[in-house]
Design brief:
single chain; alpha+beta; six-stranded antiparallel β-sheet; 21 strands
Length: about 475
């Protein structure tokens, strides 16, 4: 087995033209965010499998599609490879075996032709509109360049040159981009940076984030702590650290703290939150003991959604996969996020892998807040019940701890633990009703919760509190 990193077009050429000479097996390439598996027998390419959508269509010109796949990799020839002495792959068989050096020559020619028209078509997924009824023009109607190449019986170079010619003559135009296939550039916007809370109204800002459908991170920091509030579409879905009491903080904000607002793509923010609140499936393993190329190829090949966190001396790299597609690479250095395009990591580095999972914890924080408010009523009017009933019940939950008159979380609760918190809240409401009566209980709760009215509105906690009407 061979594996490694591809830095440039020369490296890609060396792997395909040199490594495959006389070998039998499968070469897997993850380059320019595409996955390509090439089957070889004694140095001859006999089949392949790629992740282009056109690969699901019938009557594919398999040789054309293979050449196009490699040509697309040449647009940004950086990535990883692995060679296995195993010939079991699905995908397409070639009608005739192809030499690896011939494949690279053809792909290089096609890349040059593609570079000549990419300014006009912007994306290989742009859909063509035929403006002439001639059959050679009508062939391109409703197709993108990938489909046109792979469904044509003409050589790839001829098809691309034909497209260039028809575009120049005004007989072919672009009228649509298929949603979700363009791979748009990730945007990071620092709306606010280190603004002292004493200069702003924190609740007013949080309310504006809600009405503006903000997605990103609201970071509150001081010399001794940092709080991250994770937003998606204007709603807070998670807080880090998970045991931080945001209700008390918002009621009496630390005037010495500072606020930073980082706007991020809505589709990425939950992956970023995994870094703080998720449980890693691989936890900070040194690059000395792990081959990073295997992870990239595996995530793409098995179509996984995950966050790959690469920790280097200079900072962290967030590599995000959705359904096997590499959709974004971000760096965080000294707490500042930036986009990144490189997959070259500085040795030694440490690898953590988080498969996508739910990290929401706002409901848990609401339940815990209400539980502590009820406990406060017990401590005020019936302290003996704390030890005999309340603490006995709390002891059943290993992710909770009672200290300084309050219950605290020891970890970010999962979905089952969130349900257990709701059950504990229901139990305490029932016990307090029996102890004080429903009217007295409501009076006490109303008195204690009155200062938090504006905070409840910002957090929209009504949707979580469905224990009682």
């Amino acid at each position: 087995m061979f594996y490694g990193y591809i830095e440039d077009s020369r490296g890609l050429n060396d792997v395909i033209s040199g490594l495959l000479q006389g070998r039998t097996g499968v070469l897997e390439l993850f380059v320019n965010r595409y996955l390509l598996s090439i089957k070889v027998q004694e140095g001859q390419i006999v089949g392949f499998k790629c992740d282009f959508n056109s690969a699901t269509k019938k009557n594919i010109n398999s040789y054309n599609l293979l050449v196009y796949c490699v040509a697309e990799m040449l647009a940004n020839p950086e990535g990883f490879f692995a060679f296995y002495e195993d010939t079991r792959i699905g995908g397409f068989s070639l009608n005739s075996p192809v030499r690896s050096d011939e494949l690279m020559i053809q792909a290089t020619l096609v890349r040059r032709e593609l570079d000549g028209i990419m300014e006009k078509i912007i994306s290989p997924y742009a859909i063509f509109k035929a403006l002439d009824k001639r059959s050679d023009v009508a062939f391109f109607e409703g197709k993108n360049i990938v489909e046109a190449v792979s469904l044509s019986k003409e050589p790839v170079v001829s098809v691309v040159r034909k497209i260039k010619e028809l575009l120049s003559e005004g007989k072919l135009d672009i009228y649509e981009f298929r949603e979700g296939e363009m791979g748009e550039e990730v945007e990071i916007d620092y709306v606010m940076e280190r603004v002292p809370l004493k200069r702003v109204n924190i609740l007013a800002i949080l309310e504006s984030l809600k009405t503006s459908n903000f997605s990103g991170i609201a970071k509150i920091s001081s010399p001794t702590y940092t709080i991250n509030l994770f937003y998606e579409g204007g709603e807070i879905f998670a807080v880090y650290p998970p045991d931080f009491d945001i209700f008390e903080f918002f009621l009496s904000p630390d005037k010495n703290a500072e606020l930073t607002l980082v706007s991020l793509d809505r589709s990425l923010i939950r992956f970023i939150a995994l870094r703080y609140l998720g449980k890693p499936d691989i936890d900070t393993v040194s690059s000395n003991f792990m081959e990073i190329s295997k992870l990239f190829l595996g995530l793409s090949k098995h179509k996984k959604s995950a966050l790959l966190l690469i920790s280097e001396r200079k900072g962290d790299r967030f590599v995000i996969f959705k359904d096997g597609k590499l959709v974004a690479t971000l760096t965080e250095v000294d707490g500042v996020f930036k986009t990144s395009h490189s997959l070259l990591f500085e040795e030694p580095f440490f690898v953590s892998l988080y498969f996508f999972s739910k990290v929401d914890n706002i409901a848990s924080k609401v339940y815990l807040f209400m539980i502590n408010e009820i406990i406060s009523i017990f401590m005020k009017h019936s302290p003996s019940k704390i030890n005999t009933i309340v603490l006995r019940e709390v002891a059943k939950y290993p992710f909770l701890i009672f200290t300084e008159g309050k219950i605290h979380l020891t970890k970010n609760p999962n979905e089952e633990e969130e349900r257990q918190l709701l059950n504990l809240l229901s139990f305490l409401l029932d016990v307090s009703t029996q102890e004080f009566g429903e009217e007295k209980q409501e009076e006490e709760l109303e008195f204690q919760l009155r200062p938090f009215k504006d905070i409840f509105k910002v957090l929209d906690i009504d949707k979580y509190l469905k224990v009682r009407q």
